[in-house]
Amino acid sequence: MGHAHESNTKKIWIVLIILTVITGVEVWLGILKPDFLYLSNFLGTSWLNWIFIILTLLKAYFIAWSFMHLEGEKTWFRRAIVWTPIFLICFLVTLLLIEGGYIYDTLGPLVKW
Amino acid sequence: MKSNSAVSSNKKETWSGGGVKPFGASYGKMMMWFFIVSDALTFSGFLAAYGLTRFKFIDSWPIADEVFTHVPFVHGEYPMIYVAIMTFILIVSSVTMVLAVDAGHKMQKNKVAWYMFATIIFGIIFVGSQAWEWNTFIKGSYGAVKTTEGKILQFVNEDGKQIALADFVTTERLDGREQHTKKNGLWFVEEPTIATYSIDQIITSYNAHPEVQVRTELITDQKKKTILSREEGSAQLAKTRLVVEGANLEVNEYGNTIFADFFFFITGFHGFHVITGILINIIIFFNVIIGTYEKRGHYEMVEKVGLYWHFVDLVWVFVFTFFYLV
After folding, report:
1. If one looks up domain B26-140+259-325 in CATH, what number appears?
2. Domain boundaries in chain A?
3. Does the N terminus or the C terminus of chain B have fewer Cβ atoms within 10 A?
4. Exposed, middle or buried: residue B167 (CB in 10 Å: 0-12, 13-18, 19+)?
5. Min Cα–Cα distance to chain A from B158, Å
6. Distance of CA B206 to the CA centre of its chain
């Protein structure tokens, strides 16, 4: 894009700090595993897992937007690249997780512990 | 100039798409993006399959921070620390890559070369770490037994902390087995490595140590593995079929074998991407050194391999979450 030639060095370091802090929080929560988050349940999994997933998507956003410079691409090119896989992945993951849950409900009771 | 070429190639720029740039993106860059989209779908397929399998065995899946607890050169258990360091290394390599691209925009050849070099080094450190992680996982840390029902039984002490077979198995092997080797004159037979301990030996030692308890794969309401009473443990141990040390594609001392299968497959596929990324980076690094892009007038090639490298980082962010955190 037009401003591709100006230096982004400062922004790059800020994104590095953001990504490091997010990873740090994830690891800290992962080691601590506070019971009120870990043992809770919301939409099929714990709040802790939802926090991990949201933080992961946030990291992915920063990598794609800043490092891969998606912010500088033309709007419709960006949309074609971003929304196509997001739609397909959501579709696939939803179906497969529902199927996995169904298999567990069906076969789980047959397993003797 | 050939008459059948669709776009004039007078400028000898066919590699960058003959000058036609839909959406302001050059041919090479756009194709790199389309490749990344398709590769992202491949990885999603694997991770979604992992999710399905995990939901299928939701009540007995291994707990990741009991599996990956080791840090090189350090004794003791530090769940997640090492993968966190690996994640950080990969993020830093992404930063040096983006700094190389940035220097390329300013046509600073030396800076591009040095940042590319740093990226390659960090990439190699990451792959090395991954290899270490694999090695630790394959060797295993505690040892377990597998029953005729295909369940893994592990051993814990009175505090409920997992202990290794070596911590309580003290008696003789009892079955008199020894590894068949050429050295012992058995040049005509080959066998896979036999386990350090025999089944009888483990059961005898279990009976001799009242503080040892058996832990099954089943996860309780408190999200911990079930610990059996001494009697129940004895009954389960009687069904032992196999002594398991470490993990591979057939058995896994940490629990479900398919957990190990997915671990090897997904982190392996990612590691393969990192290795190809390093190779491509090395090629581009030498191109920078010999001045290919200086002559071409732009460093877009660095940008394109940069996209691939960032994608590898992006995938790792998800692998990290779904294998180690969730």
Report:
1. 1.20.120.80
2. 9-107
3. N
4. middle
5. 22
6. 34
Q: What pLDDT, on a 0 to 100 scale, did the predictor assign at position B1?
A: 43
Cα(A47)–Cα(A40) distance, rounded to whole angstroms? 6
Strands B225-227 and B213-219 turn out to be: antiparallel
Alpha-carbon span B171 to B200, nearest angstrom: 10
Looking at beta carbons, which residues of chain A come within 8 Å of B25?
73-74, 77
- Delimit the domains of chain B by residue range: 26-140+259-325, 144-245
End-to-end CA distance of chain B: 58
Q: Which residue has the tokens 């920078």?
A: B288
Q: Give chain B positions within 8 Å (CB) of A113.
A: 151, 216, 218, 226
Which tokens in the block code for residue B129?
A: 């770490």
Tens of pLDDT, residue by residue over B61-86, are: 999 888 888 888 888 888 889 999 99
CA B157/CA B88 separation, integer angstroms = 35
Residue B186 Cα distances to B144, B180, B181, angstroms: 29, 6, 6
- Stated as kind and residue range, the H or E segment containing A85 is helix A75-107
* Beta bridge partners of residue A21, listed in sequence order: none
Per-residue burial over B121-150, b = 16 or more CB atoms within 10 Å of its CB, e = otherwise: ebbbbbbebbeebbebbeebbbbbbbbeee
Q: What is the pTM of this model?
A: 0.89
